[in-house]
Amino acid sequence: MRWIAQFIGYPDDCGGVLVSGGNMANFVCFLVARAAKADWDVRTRGAGSDAGRRLRVYGSAEMHTWIQKGADMSGIGTDAIRWIPTGADLRMDVDALRRQIVSDIAAGELPFMVVGTAGSVSTGAIDRLREISALCREHNMWFHVDGAYGGFAAALPVAPDDLRVLNLADSVAVDPDKWLYAPLEAGCALVRDVEALRAAFAYHPPYYHFAQHALNYVDLGPQNSRGFRALKVWLQMKHVGAAGYRAMIAEDIRLSQMMAAAVDRHPELELFTQALSIATFRYVPADLRATIGEAATEAHLDAPQSRVGGPTAARRRGVRLECGARGSLCAARVHRELPHDRKRC
Ligand SMILES: Cc1ncc(COP(=O)(O)O)c(C=O)c1O
């Protein structure tokens, strides 16, 4: 856990727990935030309308769907989520975020958490984490970063400025089974204040009455029985090393940039975005180029969505291109594979 924190520039005296993946890592952080910021004992009294003020959580319109499961399972309900619009760059509009928080406070509600996304699932967009952190401090809110996909790119010397400030977050979720190339399942929740993590999960019935200061993961997350996930992550770290991971992540990004450049040169492809290791683009037949933006052309270009059943994957020389179709939009996310993956092919 300490190694992961150091690798992404997070304080290495943080608390943390390995869980199944990104959803669970984010959910753990979400529950810590809820317990820390509700101004009543939310673990005992719950989050129902008679328990306290209405809790509100904020994130961009590009935020991953884990937040819906989290809001639902925690009992605050999905209506508590404020989906903040993004700009053309698909990053959260921080002015709109500020306006929504101010308006919710005026309505007597309790804004408790902002989720900044560090590498969105669809396009790799990275929110303005520095600005969001300042806003959270101003309003005494929990600042969480969902870096399930993109967080490990913070280790690169050329990381975008917003990825360099993960240390400002109260909690961060990263997924070793994504950009540390670990086999499923391996997600990681890091929380700056280990006592906040403990305060969100610990119960001490007589049969779990361990010494208060021992590190018992049963106190730090929803699972009691748990597998030894750390072993595979640690072994791979020993094998690849920090420099190796940096080189592999940088190469994935370089491949995606090369792909975007190739798409941009192609007369029948239209590039939309390129960030981290994701490039998005669509196919536009040459005879429709001149009418892009017109309703009939856009409808025609969107039609393939109804015919493409879901994500398709193509594998080429150890590089996996994950292609999802949204309208005629393709998203290619590049991961390099380690030998254990290739065996499964
Ligand atoms: C940004 C982000 N958050 C959360 C998740 C959920 O991760 P998992 O599928 O491991 O639960 C993903 C998955 O791709 C993701 O990209």
Write a structural description:
The chain starts with a helix and ends with a helix. Strands 1-7-6-5-4-2-3 form a 7-stranded mixed beta sheet, sandwiched between helices. The chain has a 5-stranded antiparallel beta sheet with strand order 8-9-12-11-10, covered by helices on one side. The protein has 345 residues and is of the alpha/beta class. The chain has 12 helices and 12 strands. The protein has 2 domains: 226 residues, Type I PLP-dependent aspartate aminotransferase-like (Major domain) (Aspartate Aminotransferase, domain 2, 3-Layer(aba) Sandwich), CATH 3.40.640; 104 residues, Aspartate Aminotransferase, domain 1 (Alpha-Beta Complex). The radius of gyration is 21 Å and the shape is globular. A hairpin with a 2-residue loop joins strand 11 and strand 12. The site of pyridoxal-5'-phosphate has 15 residues, from helix 2.
Query: How many DSSP E strands?
Result: 12
| Straight-line N-to-C gap | 30 Å
The CATH architecture of the largest domain would be: 3-Layer(aba) Sandwich
Major sheet summary line? 7 strands, mixed
Strand order of the largest sheet: 1-7-6-5-4-2-3
Q: What characteristic shape results from the CA principal axes?
A: globular
Overall number of domains = 2
Count, helices:
12
Helical residue percent?
25-40%
CATH topology of the largest domain, what is it called? Aspartate Aminotransferase, domain 2
- Tell me the quaternary state: single chain
